[in-house]
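Its record is quoted verbatim for completeness.
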Amino acid sequence: MSPDTQAAIAFSRFGLGNTPRGLDAALGDARRALMAELTSPPELSLPLSDVQRDLGFSSALPPTPELLTQLAAYNQARKAQREIKAQTRSPAQEAPRMDGAPMAAPDMAGKPAAASDDQRLPQAVTSAEVAARLKAWGAAPIGFYERLVMFWANHFAISVDKGLPDRVLAGAYEREAIRPHLTGRFRDLLLAVEHHPAMLAYLDNDASIGPNARANRNGKRGLNENLAREILELHTLGVNGGYTQADVTRFAKVITGWTLSREGQGDGFRFNPNAHEPGPQTIMGKTYADDGEQQGIRVLEDLARHPATAKHIATKLVRHFVSDQPPPALVERLSRRFIDTDGDLSAVYAALIEADESWSAPRAKLRTPQEYVIASLRALDTPIQPQRFLQALRVLGQPLWQPPGPNGFSDLASVWATPEGLNNRLDLAYQLSERVAERTDPRVFAEARLKGLISETTRRSVALAETRPQGLALVLLSPEFMRR
């Protein structure tokens, strides 16, 4: 494998795609270059906008407690507005509109927007979070760190489709629970995720209460098993990890009382002892004494060290970065590294990068819509507004922070390589290419962005393009660009 090809694979398989800066960041020693990105992770930053200042933000990317405080005030204001409107609404105003007037534009979650004032807070938060990420994605030398952020955010998926507060907290959740912990120990990442208000709200643990808890003396409130089940099935052990339904129920009792402070006290997490199920619980053969919040922490710590968790995480990493059919030997090496280092994720990534299979496997993986849009923007060196970026992801079938379920978006190429999906990519590629066509020669562009990978077939197709936008679009639609 030539140095150019190895560098190109670093950018396509492990990174966010080539840029006008070229492959220099990975030339010489591609493996070392990828690992170097993990030692100096980028910070998300953005200046405070006038809209955010008007809303009372102290920073463009506020922490969760501030967002919860803002959200409480926002909900109070909306309630007051509804009461005023209800008192002043006339019978004519209450009748449904029959004039064929267009509905409001859909919001981030794909739902019709309400009055503009009702959307100000969530839209301002979302716009800032996306703008900061677009800046980081464009500036990343290769993009390995950012790809790992995407991997873990999808592994520990939440969805803005849940509504408030997740719609407001999705970006902060990724910034606080995922980004700071993805190079440390899996235990710390797991604890940060399961304590975060966004996860607690998404999987309804804030509504779960122990059957015998002090706050449930009348027995009218119920135990919710959503979070316990997904921790075992998706976040740690995996579907065949050896747990039973009884383990799910007992674990759900252990984490009763894990809730959020909707007024924003502390870090947003709150343990409510009155909602906690009293007494010891036995999970997968081990009994955990009741010592409040610590009971749940000790269960999570054991799950983080379980061999089934090591295999589950190793399999998902290999499937994401290398092949839809993970090579068993590579999975075993990553799993062993996970166990031997007590879940040191940087050591696991190093095992992935060191493996020859990670570089020699056929480039059969298809870039997900999010990866494809980012790679296209980097290749063309063209900016995009946050709302346009969100719209592009919706059209391509991977709306940001809105997976179809707690298991996140699929990693399999077959899910994304549909006729409709590829046709939508064609439309986007042409639209983006038109922006830079006047100043960009498609043949030069193809040789530069596909350096180390370009085939004679692609080279010939681009040369025969009838227009510059068509030639540039052909580069973005080539197998060398679409696959990783």
Observations:
- Residues 369-482 form one domain.
- The longest strand covers residues 258-260.
- Confidence is low (pLDDT under 50) at residues 95-115.
